[in-house]
Amino acid sequence: MIGRVRTIDVRAGRVHVVPDDGPPDVLRIRPSERAKLSSFMVGRRIAFDIEHDEHGEVMSNVRFLDRPMPPNFPRPAPRD
After folding, report:
1. Within the chain, how many helices (H) and strands (E) appear?
2. Are the C-beta atoms of residues 42 and 78 closer than 8 Å to each other?
3. Is 44 in contact with 32 (CB distance < 8 Å)?
4. What angle do CA 63, 37, 8 make, to 5 degrees?
5. pTM of the predicted model, to two decimals?
6. Phi/psi at 23 (5° precision)
7. CA angle 8–12–16, rounded 5-degree value
8. What is the pLDDT of residues 1-54, one digit of tens each?
9. Can you list the domains of the chain with their CATH numbers?
10. Which neighbouring-strand residues pair with 28?
11. CA-CA to 29 of 20 to 30 Å: which in 3, 37, 50, 76?
């Protein structure tokens, strides 16, 4: 899947993603991927796989499709 990060909850390990081809989704990050949470930024495009565990869907194999922007750089508005 490919989408854009809309919100991030680092403590819960959740990322709200607006997929390019579907409705917005809130996904948990697989524990082995949590080291990447510091690289997640609102508006950043990502590619990822969906896996299922005992609690539901989780994001895995996260790849960043663009470079992080400086904090003062205007970010693209998320698609609704």
Report:
1. 0, 5
2. yes
3. no
4. 105
5. 0.70
6. -75, 160
7. 30
8. 899 888 888 888 888 888 888 776 778 887 777 777 777 888 889 998 888 888
9. 2-60 (2.40.50.140)
10. 14, 58
11. 76
